[in-house]
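pipeline stage [seq->struct] | target=MipA/OmpV family protein | organism=Massilia cellulosiltytica | residues=275
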Amino acid sequence: MPTILRFIIPASTLVALVPAVAAEPNLPLWEAGIGAAVFNTPAYPGASDRSNRGLVLPFLLYRGKVLRADQQGVGARLLDTDKVEFDIGFAGALPSRSDDVEARRGMPDLGTLVEFGPRVKYKFADLGEAGRLRFELPVRAVIEARGGLRRQGWTTEPRFVWERRGDGGRWTMEAQVGAVFGDRRIHGYFFDVAPQYATADRPAYRAGSGLMLVRTGVFGTVKVNPDVRAFAFVRLDSYAGNANRESPLFRKDVGASAGVGLAWTLARSSKRANE
């Protein structure tokens, strides 16, 4: 998808850019601050053009027993055991201007996407000092927020995640491998070419459902001081098995993304999340 940004309220939060520190004990119930990051990503799955993004936005973390807003999204935790966690959350994607993408020139822009739905996490291995392994299965409805709200289908992203944290949360590292599947509507959002937008080099095309991409990536953070963390990620997506390789908008089999940033906590609660 376009540059992914998990958020609480559009244009007012930066949850995805706040490093993963949720496993540290005795954390504040809430924290607020400001984050900044720069990204370089494909314009959309299978695109040959790339997008550079810079963001400076406030963030809010809330670590309630049920309501949560952290680096994994925002939503309601409905079940949390030693092995299984079930929640309902939100995610989103930043827009992309079609005039900046050669393959889509003259077509409608790709708007801001909001995703909402349930997620199951199964924690299947604790490797001690070597980290922990879990399996995640989110299923989400996709809504486009551009000139109103329009449903743009469903996605699911089964993935395996390995995470490891340094003593006292001084650093964190997370690696994952997974795949993104979508229905006809979300594939059509990226790969359809309606007859009125067809050209000699871009014939009309109607997308089908199925695999969108296979993804692997690494995300890491380091604590600079008690209030500031630096973070970075690199991600590699393979579109070789994409269900719509025949679309004239499909231009490339592989896409890499990378980003770096800082998160600065300006205020935090005296009450702890585990109280």
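stage status: PASS
auto-comment: Residues 1-23 have pLDDT under 50 and may be disordered. Residues 73 and 88 are 9 Å apart (CA to CA).
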